[in-house]
Amino acid sequence: MMSMKKDGPSAETEESRMETRVIVVTSGKGGVGKTTVTANLSARLAMEGFKVVAMDADIGLRNLDVVMGLENRIVYNMVDVIEGTCKLPQALVRDKRVENLFLLPAAQTRTKDAVTSDEMKGLCDSLRGEYDFVLVDSPAGIESGFRNASAGADEALVVATPEVSSVRDADRIIGLLESFGKRSINLIVNRVRPDMVRKGKMLGVSDVREILAVDMIGIIPEDETVVVSTNRGEPLALSNTSPASRAFEKIAGRILGRDIPLQDLDDLEEKGLFANFIKLFGRREGRG
Amino acid sequence: MGFLDRFFRKETPRQSARERLQLVLIHDRADISPDTMERIRKDLIKVINNYMVINEEGIEMDLERDGRSVALVASIPVIEVKRKHPRKRDK
C-alpha cells in the first residue's frame, strides 16, 4: 500500500486513503467522451502525485492509447497478461511526461470474448495495493464488454452529453450499475454549450441532473482544445489551461474528496450576465 | 415541471427534450408490458382472495416514478376480511 504524493500545497490536506480505488468510466452511448475523460482524469490524478493506471477495456477497438499518445510504446496488452504471455508490469506503458501514470492497453486484434468478467476482476484486483487509482475505460453498449469493464470496479463515472439519446442510455447504464451493486455512481455531463442552453435550444446541466437523479461530479464545457489535444496525443490536463482542462482539474479534485463547488454553468444558464460576473470572481479567488 | 416553464410560453427545444426524455424513461425504467401488468393483477387477486373478500372491479394498479426508482402502487378495496386463514397444506 502506498500513497505516492508529491509535496504539493494540498498534499497534507488530502484524505489519508491508502486503498486502491478502481473506477469504471462508462456511458452506454458511444462517442460521448469516455476515453477523453479517462485519459485526462488519469493524467490529472497522476499530476496530483497519485500512482494511476489507465486501463483500456475496449478490447478490439482500443483507443485510449492514441488519446494518451502512447500508441507507439505498446509491447504487451491486457489479454497477454490474462493469458500469461507476460507479467502485468511488462504490459504497463509508463507515461514519460508525468510521473506515476501508466496505461494498460487493450488487445486490438482480439474480440470482447477474449476475457471473462472474472478475469477482468482478477486483473483489477492484482493492481490493488500497488496503485492509488485504476481508471477503466469501458466500451460503449450494455453487453459483455461493459459488464467486464465494470466487474472489477468499486465506483463508476457515467459520462453523458446533454442530448436525449445520451441521457436515455446513461439512465439505462446507471440502472445496471446499481443492480451490480456499485457503491458510488457519479455523473459527468460533457460537451455542455451554455449559449445554446440559455437560448432554450438544448438540455441544460440542471435538466440532465434532475432527470437522471444521480450525484453529479463534474461539468465539461464544449471546448475545441479537446479535439486538438486528441489529434496531438497530449492529454489536455498535462499542459493546457482551457475550460475543459480546468473542468478535469476540478473533477479530479472532487474525486479526491475536495470540496469544490460545481461549476457555475447552471447559474450561467439561468441567470446569464449576473452569473458570468460571479463566475469571474469565483475564478480569481480560486486561483489566488 | 420546474419553474422554467413560467419563463417560456412557447415550448423550446430544451423543453421538448426534457418532456420526451421523462416520458421515455418512465417506460424504460419500468419495462413492464400491459400483459405482464394484467398477470400481476390476476395473481394479486388470487393471493389476497385467500385472506379477504375484495372488490375486483375497484382495483387500481399503476407504476409511479420517484427519483430513480419506480414503485408499483396498488389500491385494492376490501369488502370483508375472512376469519379463518387457510392452513399450509404441506405440513
List the helices and strands and how they pair.
The complex is a heterodimer of chains A (288) and B (91).
Chain A: E1 21-26, H1 34-47, E2 52-56, H2 64-68, H3 78-83, H4 88-91, E3 93-94, E4 101-104, H5 117-127, E5 133-137, H6 144-151, E6 155-160, H7 164-180, E7 184-192, H8 194-198, H9 205-212, E8 215-221, H10 224-232, H11 236-239, H12 243-255, H13 265-271, H14 273-287
Parallel strand pairs in A: 1-5, 1-6, 2-4, 2-5, 6-7, 7-8
Antiparallel strand pairs in A: 3-4
Chain B: H1 4-7, H2 13-30, H3 34-49, E1 52-54, E2 60-66, E3 69-75, E4 78-81
Antiparallel strand pairs in B: 1-4, 2-3
Short description:
In chain A, 44% of the residues lie in helices and 15% in strands. By secondary structure, chain A is α/β, with parallel strands linked by helices.
Structure in words:
The complex is a heterodimer of chains A (288) and B (91). Chain A is of the alpha/beta class and 288 residues long. Chain A has helices at 34-47, 64-68, 78-83, 88-91, 117-127, 144-151, 164-180, 194-198, 205-212, 224-232, 236-239, 243-255, 265-271, 273-287, and strands at residues 21-26, 52-56, 93-94, 101-104, 133-137, 155-160, 184-192, 215-221. Chain A is built from 14 helices and 8 strands. Chain A has an 8-stranded mixed β-sheet, with helices on both faces. Chain A is globular, with a radius of gyration of 18 Å. Residues 1-17, 268-273 and 282-288 of chain A have low confidence and may be disordered. Chain B is of the alpha+beta class and 91 residues long. Chain B has a domain at 33-83. Chain B contains 3 helices and 4 strands; from the N terminus they run H-H-H-E-E-E-E. At the A-B interface, helix 7 and helix 9 of A face helix 2 of B.
